Write the C-alpha cells for this entry.
Amino acid sequence: DLPCVDNDTLRRGVPCTHVVYGEGVAVMIGNVLNLLAFAELSRVSLPDPWAQKLVRAFAQAGSWIQAGQIDDIQ
C-alpha cells in the first residue's frame, strides 16, 4: 500500500502503515518482517549446521541495520 505502489490509504478499513508512521518506516517494517522469516528459519534444524549459523547471523545483522535505519528516519 505504499505511495510508490498503489497508494491506498486504508487496508481492511484501517489506516495503512505508511499513512500512520510515514513511508520510510513502512518500508523498514517490511524489511524487518522479511528478516523475521530468516530468524524463524534459523530456529529449525537445517542439514548443514554452518548454514543454520549463517542464516542466524544474517537475520541478526539485518535486524541491527534496520534498527539503525529506523533511528535515522525518526
